[in-house]
Specification:
By secondary structure, the chain is of the alpha/beta class. It folds into 2 domains: about 110 residues, NAD(P)-binding Rossmann-like Domain (Rossmann fold, 3-Layer(aba) Sandwich), CATH 3.40.50.720; about 180 residues, 2-Layer Sandwich (Dihydrodipicolinate Reductase, domain 2), CATH 3.30.360. A 9-stranded mixed beta sheet has the order 14-13-12-11-7-10-9-8-15. A 6-stranded parallel beta sheet has the order 3-2-1-4-5-6, sandwiched between helices. Helix 6 packs across helix 8. The longest helix has 20 residues. It is globular and about 65 Å long. This is Putative dehydrogenase. Pfam families: GFO_IDH_MocA (PF01408), GFO_IDH_MocA_C3 (PF22725). Keywords: NAD.
């Protein structure tokens, strides 16, 4: 079977990583690259540098990766959909809900694979964590908390920290809990003099009753990517920078003493750090995209799921603006 011919548009910081991984993944070939702003990282190699999505389509590609700024996602991805090209769009899928809905419709009505690059789902620590939650290792899940902090990336200019970074946490939280967000309550800050917010703290309530807490900013001198899931039997801590997963057991044993049975206590128990097979998340994401194109079972993040993340992000921003709890479905 011939390789899937993949085109890449957007050759910035994320585009260069996509180019490298596409060249490494079995069953796909990087066939064309495009960026009207040029090729600052020299990733095109022996491929001609194209300047538009129309030229990319004319190169005869089967699939494409869109790594352009978010404000251009709709125009570029719609052109690809109209040409019958399966597409992976970097997150967030769109700058707003209306734009995202048009993209979802463009791909779904044509029966094309439309995927969004929510790469955290492919992190080995989070994949193992979800498997262990499903297996009942944590018992009932009570809370999911995330911390995503670090310096401001100068490449981001068209959205704030909520849509750029917090959509990672929105997606991974709903995915781990297998439940969507019901409501959110948020506070944001603008401290760096940019147009958009650079700090957000918000809580959430999922449809299944799990409560969540998220701290996200571009103002920290250290980089942190941590997810903590607390439940009846203890807590899992996933570090998605290192790909490590640690379990802190609740050492309190069940009692049959009737007068104290109503109190749910905890104590420090055994701590286990799991040995995980650590494959690059971006490579796993591209393999899932390839498998979806070939009609195989795939864990690709769909555009409809990506749209739901934008809806939650919009609710976070509305909550901060109105200083109130916002129901996502509103």
């Amino acid at each position: 079977m011939a390789d899937v011919r993949v085109g890449l548009i957007g050759l910035g910081m994320m585009g260069r990583h996509h180019a490298r991984v596409i060249r490494e993944v079995e069953g796909v070939t990087l066939s064309a690259v495009a960026d009207p702003a040029g090729d600052p990282h020299n990733v095109s190699g022996d491929l001609p540098l194209l300047s538009s999505v129309d030229e990319l389509i004319a190169a005869g590609i089967d699939a494409a990766v869109v790594a352009v700024p978010t404000i251009y996602h709709e125009a570029v991805a719609t052109a690809l959909a109209e040409a019958g090209v399966h597409t992976l769009v970097e997150k967030p899928i769109s700058p707003d809900i209306d734009s995202g809905e048009r993209l979802v419709d463009a791909f779904e009505k044509r029966g094309l694979v439309g995927a969004v690059g929510h790469i955290e789902r492919f992190n080995p620590a989070l994949q193992s964590l979800r498997e262990r939650i499903e297996a009942g290792d944590l018992g009932e899940v009570f809370q999911i908390a995330t911390r995503r902090q670090g310096p401001f990336p100068a490449r981001i200019a068209d959205v704030g920290v909520v849509k750029d970074l917090a959509t990672h946490d929105i997606d991974l939280t709903a995915w781990l809990a297998q439940s969507g967000f019901s409501s959110v309550a948020a506070q944001v800050a603008l401290r760096s003099g940019r147009e958009f917010e650079d700090m957000v703290s918000f809580t959430g309530l999922l449809d299944n009753g799990v409560i969540t807490n998220h701290l996200v900013n571009w103002l920290s001198p250290m980089k942190e990517r941590v997810t903590v899931v607390t439940g009846d039997r203890g807590a899992f801590v996933a570090d998605t920078i290192s790909g490590d997963l640690t379990f802190y057991e609740n050492g309190t044993t069940t009692t049959e003493w009737e007068s104290v049975m109503a109190f749910r206590g905890v104590s420090e128990g055994t701590v286990v750090r799991y040995a995980l097979t650590k494959r690059e998340p971006l490579r796993l994401e591209h393999e899932a995209f390839r498998d979806a194109i070939l009609g195989k079972t795939s864990s690709v993040v769909t555009m409809r799921e990506g749209l739901q993340n934008v809806k939650v992000a919009e609710a976070v921003l509305r909550s901060a603006q109105g200083a109130s709890t916002v129901h996502v479905s509103e």
